[in-house]
Amino acid sequence: MGTLRAIFEHVFEDALKQGRIGKIETTITEHNVYQQGSEILLPFLDEIVQGLILPGSGVDGMENLEELLDKALAGKSCLLLVEHYSNMDLSLFSWLVRAAGGRGPEVDRALVAIAGMKLNEENPRVAMMASAYTRLVIYPSRSVEHLDAERDRAEILRSNAINRAAMKTLQEIKTQGKIILVFPSGTRYRPWDPSTKKGVREIDSYLRSFDYMCCVALNGEVLHVHQGDMLEESVSQDLVRITAGRVQACGEFRERARAAAEAAGIEDKKQAAVDAIMAELEEMHLAAEEKRRPLLAARTEASP
Length: 304
Prior knowledge:
By secondary structure, this protein is of the alpha/beta class. It is built from twelve helices and eleven strands.
């Protein structure tokens, strides 16, 4: 089907003609880390998703998302820990949850995604995609690691200010009926780099400070990550399934992971807790793929 740029161009041009792009805050400071999703831009992204997903796409475990929503509405802090394969993941999740019916639209409205600032600042088209959804923008630790203490002092100060503001905002909103969506790998999975499927150590702090969590597997690829400009990534249609696991108490999950690490002689218990999340996601992904493949095969056989 070509590249994301090719299929997205007419959507971008339509939004540009309607004067929508100019309203996007592309430069992140400590004053705009919380960005409300645009109801004007969302239909443009929905149009792309609907053109990429095949019949049979949908959500398994919707009841678990609704249970997590109930806990959030009761004032509990709630995490959604989602696999990350491409920059379409949030768009796919949002559309499929809303399309599932029932309380799906209510679940979607409660979502606040933790997002890296690159999505806002790298390209206006990418910024438009991101701006359709409510986000709390952070300066990722992976980006800070490459900064030089002397040469990049101003940027380090900026990163600290952005992250302090983001964490302050997170503390304010997490018990206000919101579900905080986090990609525990911190980046999209790149098949040529296994380290991109390893959870980032900072996720342990989320487990420590939140009440409940739900892991989410994402099966099916409509956007294929590669090195270089993300708008040049290739797109294809696919049958996409979202699988929401059971709701778990964060504290209990974390303590089990730490106890297992202790028994195994693993010293870094924070990383061990995050590794346990990634292991659960991988197990869910493999199980969901076993169910998805026959659906895809049946559709292929039925095609003329």
